[in-house]
Amino acid sequence: MSAKKSGDMTSGSPVRLMIGFMVPMFLGNVFQQFYNIADSIIAGQFLGVNALAAIGSTGSLMFMVTGWISGISSGFAILVAQWFGARKYDRMRHFTAMSVYLTAGITVLMTVGLLAANKPILRLMNTPGELMPDVSGYMAVIYTGLIVTAAYNSLAAVMRALGDSKSPLYFLIISAMINIFLDIVFIAWFHMGVVGCGYATVIAQGISALLCFLYIRKKFHILHLKREDFRISWDSIKKLLALGIPMGLQFSITAIGTIIVQGAVNIYGAVYIAGFAAGAKIQNLVVSVYVAFGATAATFVGQNWGAGKLDRVKKGILYTQIMILVSSAVLMAVIFFFGRYLVLMFVSPSETGVIDAAVTYFMAVFWCYPFLGSIFVYRNALQGMGYGLVPMLGGVFELAARAAVVAVLAGRTSYFGVCLSDPAAWLAALIPLVPYYFYKMKKASKLEDQNQKSEKASKSSVFS
């Protein structure tokens, strides 16, 4: 596959390239959400409110675990994107190989640790006793299958780093359909209950990982790894960890905040847990739009930063911010006018308490979507440049804001007050991100001007 065909974003219209990359990325995120959404819908419709609450209460925990894996995979892929943009394919393959070592080792450690801490974590989250068997069984299956989750995320991240966001989408569509089919088979036919949803998810993710691997072997010849690519370089490993760990922590820190919020919601009982879960699942589809814009920005910035094209970086981020604001206006209208009806995917119309709880959550958060989207613009832009610390700091600000709201309001005021922790977190996350982005761009512009002046002076001295 040639460089241009495989997704070169260093030339051509930034808007056209970014939209072309973003749309498949968004659809891929939506179908990835279908794993957990399908589990919730089928469990809620076939097994009832308690089953919906059981799976729904794991959403924040799932986000922490899969977010960490997705974060480190995306962080490792930044160097792949940069070397691809610089046309240094031997270095690109080397960093791909080193990321294989790191991802496998980290995933094994996670699996062992999380299986051992499964029930203690759930108790810390105030999981109701009647939900504990279903929740702990479901999460045990998910933890056991983390290796296939990591495999898919790593392979998809590498393909996206080379500009191919369509192929991971196709594989996700296939695996999402398989997941839905297996959910119905395991629950309706085999009567496996909530645990059956976990098995369906792991099997479907394993299929998507296998399809990614086979496609890379067939189509991406520049990614065919050789023995010398796997020679361990501690310097390369340090560089990968310097990007991967902050990005993984960024997701995990954010997820810890949502776990704290989930623990506060659990105090209000199964009806509110189910309503909050349904609202959060729909909210995740909204976030999928912003995740896609963010991933597009990271790849675009990574390739153009590696190619030394600063003007294209600036234009790409400006256009992304405009697209975020337009899409936010549409999403706000959808949630405000149709949120109540979307909840009916999860429960019957007779479950008015669950529906009202979900709508209460929507009213608490929908007005803040433009700020939520902006987080992904500036965070991923900085990551695409190779800066990982401040994006992680944005996650720390999110965590602090959520914890503060929960500490003040949980158990002392209404459920609505706890839901306000999300807008507080989104606004707080922007505090370090926006100033640091403009600081780095200003510094890079000055350095570029100095280099251009030096080149002109050098040419003048040659011809004088």
UniProtKB/TrEMBL annotation:
Listed Pfam families: MatE (PF01554)
Keyword Transmembrane: yes
Topology term for the membrane: Multi-pass membrane protein
UniProt-annotated location(s): Cell membrane
S-adenosyl-L-methionine recorded as keyword: no
Alphabetical UniProt keywords: Cell membrane, Membrane, Transmembrane, Transmembrane helix, Transport
Transmembrane portions of the chain: 15-35, 68-86, 98-117, 137-157, 169-192, 198-216, 240-265, 285-305, 317-338, 358-378, 390-411, 423-439
CDD domains, alphabetized: MATE_yoeA_like
A single MF term (Gene Ontology): antiporter activity
Superkingdom of origin: Bacteria
Listed GO CC annotations: plasma membrane
InterPro entries for the chain: MATE_fam, MdtK-like, Membrane_Transporter-Flippase
Protein name: Putative MATE family efflux protein
Native source species: Faecalicatena orotica
